Amino acid sequence: MLDYQSVSVIYGDNKPSLSDFTLRIQKGEIVALVGESGSGKTTAIRAAMGLLPSGGQIVKGDIRFDGQSLLYLTDNEWRALRGGSMSMIFQDSGTMLNPIRTIGSQFIEYIRTHKQKTKKEAWEMGWMMLERMGLPHSKTIMKSYPFQLSGGMRQRVGIAMAMVFEPRILLADEPTSALDVTTQSQIVREMMGLREKFGTSILLVTHNLGVAAYMADRILVMTQGSIVDQGDRQAILEHPSADYTRDLLESVPSMRGKRYV
Ligand SMILES: Nc1ncnc2c1ncn2[C@@H]1O[C@H](COP(=O)(O)OP(=O)(O)O)[C@@H](O)[C@H]1O
Ligand SMILES: [Mg+2]
């Protein structure tokens, strides 16, 4: 479905921040990208969404979605794709909500930017999506302002918006890192549910090896812009081939000799 072919990204004229990145994600697959801060995880995700910050450019390789290259899309084609087959959640999706407008009015606007819907239809889609994301009192939430919700609820509203068009792939950049552990596990379970309910593929960026181990079918380990280890979850956790992966595993706290992962 999503196919990175030897992709390199450069910011300015430094050495590549992403080097020869190759990854192919199948339908319904959950892949986790792990690695320390600055290893190129966000760059990999943003490259696929056509959202590299200015100065960043793909200098090598190709990224394809259903066989079609994403490197030469027009603005209109991007708008259709981002509001349809591909969607993205950020660490701070919740904080990107406008503080002085209700969730409902923002949800309606978001839907109507991408799809021709009446306000009433968009309202229905919005609260139903909140409901499906397991948010209680979804109609009340639609009428609320962001400050009236907890951080976890705001983040779930952000995820609901990202899911409203039932994307075939969700690119999630540290979606739970800013949240407390309880909310984190709730959101992790909800994301797993997306695959169950909609068959969504997920590319998950996290520095939390526990989250990666819980969610992902396959784990890629990155450092300094390159993939240094990859394999199915079991293989990575039990037989890491790279020293770097072993270090990463060592850094996870253990309790009575058992690692949390
Ligand atoms: N906007 C930017 N301008 C210049 N360099 C950047 C920018 N964003 C990222 N980089 C470079 O790319 C590297 C990888 O960053 P990033 O993809 O954000 O890593 P990660 O998400 O793994 O923390 C960083 O070390 C930095 O050098
Ligand atoms: Mg990042």
Question: How would you portray this structure in words?
Answer:
The protein is an alpha/beta fold and 261 residues long. It has one domain (2-259): Rossmann fold (3-Layer(aba) Sandwich). Helix content is 38%, strand content 25%. It has 10 helices and 12 strands. It has helices spanning 41-49, 75-82, 103-114, 119-132, 138-142, 151-163, 181-198, 209-215, 233-238, 243-250; strands spanning 2-11, 18-25, 30-34, 56-65, 68-69, 86-89, 169-173, 201-205, 218-223, 226-232, 254-255, 258-259. The strands form 3 sheets. A 6-stranded mixed sheet has the order 6-7-8-3-9-10, with helices on both faces. Strands 2-1-4-5 form a 4-stranded antiparallel sheet. Strand 1 (2-11) and strand 2 (18-25) form a beta hairpin. It is globular and about 55 Å long. The two termini are 28 Å apart. The structure holds adenosine-5'-diphosphate (ADP) and magnesium ion (MG). Residues 11, 17, 35, 37-43, 53, 55-56 line the site of adenosine-5'-diphosphate (ADP).
What are the main properties of this structure?
alpha/beta, six-stranded mixed β-sheet, 10 helices, Rossmann fold, binds adenosine-5'-diphosphate, 261 residues, globular, binds magnesium ion, four-stranded antiparallel β-sheet
Q: By CATH's scheme, which homologous superfamily applies?
A: P-loop containing nucleotide triphosphate hydrolases
The count of strands amounts to 12
CATH-defined topology: Rossmann fold
User: What Rg do the Cα atoms give?
Assistant: 19 Å
Q: Which blocks of ≥5 consecutive residues have pLDDT under 50?
A: none
Q: Ends: how far apart?
A: 28 Å
Determine the fraction of residues in helical runs and give it as a percent range: 25-40%
What would the principal axes of the Cα set say about the shape?
Answer: globular
Please report the first level of CATH classification, the CATH class: Alpha Beta
Cofactors, ions, other ligands: adenosine-5'-diphosphate, magnesium ion
Q: Mean pLDDT score, rounded?
A: 89
The number of helical runs is 10
The H/E string reads EEEHEEHEHHHHEHEHEEHHEE
Biggest sheet strand order reads: 6-7-8-3-9-10
Beta-strand residue fraction: 25-35%
